[in-house]
Write a structure and sequence with these properties.
This protein has 217 residues and is α/β, with parallel strands linked by helices. It has 6 helices and 5 strands. The chain has helices at residues 16-41, 60-73, 97-107, 127-141, 158-169, 194-210; strands at residues 51-55, 77-82, 115-119, 148-154, 174-180. Helix 5 (158-169) links the parallel strand 4 (148-154) and strand 5.
């Protein structure tokens, strides 16, 4: 019996032209992703609603733009959401982002009778969901009759917040989304700054994760 240690085998390999075409296609795909991922995450899809819900962790400049949106959109009520403060809790007058943001709105001249703070309990993870659930529970016992809201978020976080709030509040309440423009980096060239790169890449990962979680429960 003859023992063979090697044998000849014919295989297909990519040609030089094939590598060029594949590389070109990959570059085009990457360029499309880079130029379109930010507007995809920083989504704006407002609906006709008489309630504007503002995420309490937003910076002051975004709160100012939320007030401008409220006046422009003919809303009846502004609701702020948020968890307990992560820093300064023991020294601050306001113990959570919902109350802090509501107080900021009033300090900026907003009618105190048209703003309501709806704080959420402290959680280690799923903070956006905790705010959405707190809002749902508050609305279920409130005298306000709400059929639809617009959620006011910031930049690339908007898409993820929209997913969570829609799943928690639907089908009883329809949810639109408005994304304030971040001032921490140039959204048109986000990949050129460390802040923009970290933010967008982090939100891509968080968005993918959010698609596979049952936020309703």
């Amino acid at each position: 019996m003859r023992i063979r240690l090697i044998r000849r085998r014919e295989i297909w390999v990519i040609t030089r032209e094939g590598w060029i075409i594949a590389s070109t296609g990959l570059i085009i795909l990457m360029l499309l992703i880079i130029t379109n991922i930010h507007p995809f995450l920083a989504v704006n899809a407002p609906i006709k609603a008489d309630i504007l819900v503002v995420e309490g962790w937003l910076p002051d400049y975004a709160i100012e733009s939320a007030i401008a949106e409220f006046k422009k959109g003919e809303y009846r009520q502004l609701i702020t959401t948020g968890l307990p403060l992560s820093k300064g809790y023991y020294l601050a007058e306001y113990k959570n982002y919902a109350e802090l943001t509501a107080a900021t709105c009033i300090a900026l001249g907003f009618d105190k009778d048209k703003v309501v703070a709806v704080p959420a309990a402290s959680v280690v993870k799923h903070r956006t969901a905790a705010s959405a659930i707190a809002l749902r529970d508050w609305l279920s016992t409130s005298a306000l009759k709400v059929n639809s809201i617009n959620l006011y978020s910031l930049g690339t976080h908007a898409r993820r917040s929209w997913i969570v709030f829609k799943e928690v509040l639907n089908p009883e309440i329809k949810v639109g989304i408005i994304a304030a423009e971040s001032q921490d980096y140039n959204s048109q060239e986000w990949w050129k700054s460390s802040e923009g790169f970290r933010t967008v890449i982090g939100e891509i990962i968080a968005y993918i994760y959010a698609r596979f979680v049952d936020w309703k429960n």
